[in-house]
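Hi R.,

Here's the chain you asked about this morning:
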Amino acid sequence: MSSTLQTALVGPASADSVLASKGRSFHWARHLLGAVHATRATRLYRFCRYIDDLADEAESVPLAQRALAELASSVRSGQASDPIIQDGLALMQECDIDADIVLDLISGVQSDLQPVCMPNLDALLRYCYQVAGTVGLMMCKVLDTHASAAFPHAVDLGMAMQLTNICRDISADAAAGRRYLPATMVGDLTCEQLLQADDALRENLQACVLALLDCADTYYASGELGLSYLPLRARTSMLVAARVYHGIGSELRARRQFCGTDRAVVPPWRKFVITSQVLLTRPWTPSFWRQPRRHDADLHQALTNFPTSRTAVCWRDAD
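And here is the predicted structure, written out as tokens:
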């Protein structure tokens, strides 16, 4: 591959196009970041999306398993021939991102290669940590936030967004053989049953989704408390991203239809309103500036088996 083509594949314009097409909420919020942080955050999104796509866009499960295993090997060795992975590895080195965090993300993505039937809420929260809480940890480093007290809140924000995704994408996930809704909340349903839900089942699904959105609200609240550890512009940008994503849950609550093919989105006018509210009101809120004294450890009860989450879970109260 020529150096010109490699540059095109991994350059800022390429990363921004990925973010614009696949991460519209974050693409909106990135404009509030400074140039360095915006570029880093966009590169991080592309790297994480690439990991997802290795699983979702592979021609077969064996090919996806092989690609993810090779990626894990590259993360461990710090070497790769793929230009996008090279850029991800360079970003890890530049921002001091622990390889084990990326390996946890890869492990979560690998778990999606088999049929998913989530047994209970704790299992779902562990999955949310793997595929999204880890991204929150990496984002801290990308935004030059190295205080360990910030990490559990970053995990919570990532998990909240993933819970929102799961509530939004029930039908699409079921079509791919994945039922993330916990069996303890909806019963041990097959994906086919989810796709062909009758009125009685839809009522049960509605109760489950509303409960999961309430759970997400708790994690959003904790995530927002930790934004005070970020640099000012990053704090504002991440708050806008969080509020826009939270708006997807509000849209789901309003429509009360969780198994359709019409994907819930936050329209541009609503994003503008959310951004304006953040810019005009949040700087006058003490929590925007004041760092929380402690993190609610109960939110991470399900995560204690993950070595990379221990730094985010086991920290002493701030002074």
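One quick note: The first helix runs from residue 3 to 10.

Cheers,
M.
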